[in-house]
Amino acid sequence: MKRVNEEELEYDYDAYGAALLDGEPFTGEAVEILGGAVVGLTTFVSGMEDGPKKTWYKNGQIRTEGRASRVRGAAGVWSEWSESGQLAERKEFDEKGNMISWRQWGEDGVLIKDKTYDPLW
């Protein structure tokens, strides 16, 4: 799979914000680098976000992880961690992109939100 620096991409806002490389819809992974460290990775298919997406804190700790779908937006489980590595949030989406659950934890690891949604709303 082709991997480029995110700065190499251009975005066509007339085409739903499609990511372009050398004027063509990009397929591959784009990495965001800050201060020499990779802090983001986004997967594109035909210019649209589609596949794994991750971000990291500057200290290397994972920040967010999930899967994007060019058709549905979010797909499956999306997780977010605090800079200390504590799981902070987890959202789950059904096959249509509807959120079906949302959980949040405090810095102490205690569950502070536990919500389940009816996918038919």
Q: Please identify the top-level CATH class.
A: Alpha Beta
CATH architecture title: Alpha-Beta Complex
Proportion of helical residues: under 10%
Terminal residue distance? 38 Å
Radius of gyration: 16 Å
| CATH fold-level name | Outer Surface Protein A, domain 3
Taken from the alpha-carbon principal axes, the silhouette is flat
Q: In terms of structural class, how would the helical and strand content be classed? A: mainly beta
Poorly predicted ranges: none
Q: Structurally, how many domains make up the residues? A: 1
> What integer is the average pLDDT?
93
Separate helix tally: 0
Order of helices and strands: EEEEEEEEEEEE
Number of strands: 12
Q: What is the percentage of strand-forming residues?
A: over 45%
Sheet with most strands: strand arrangement? 1-5-6-7-8-9-10-11-12
How would you describe this structure to a colleague?
There is one protein chain. The chain is an all-beta fold. The protein has a single domain, classed as Alpha-Beta Complex (Outer Surface Protein A, domain 3). Helices cover 0% and strands 61% of the residues. A nine-stranded mixed beta sheet has the order 1-5-6-7-8-9-10-11-12, with no helix packed on it. Strands 2-3-4 form a three-stranded antiparallel beta sheet, with no helix packed on it. Strand 6 and strand 7 (48-56) form a beta hairpin.
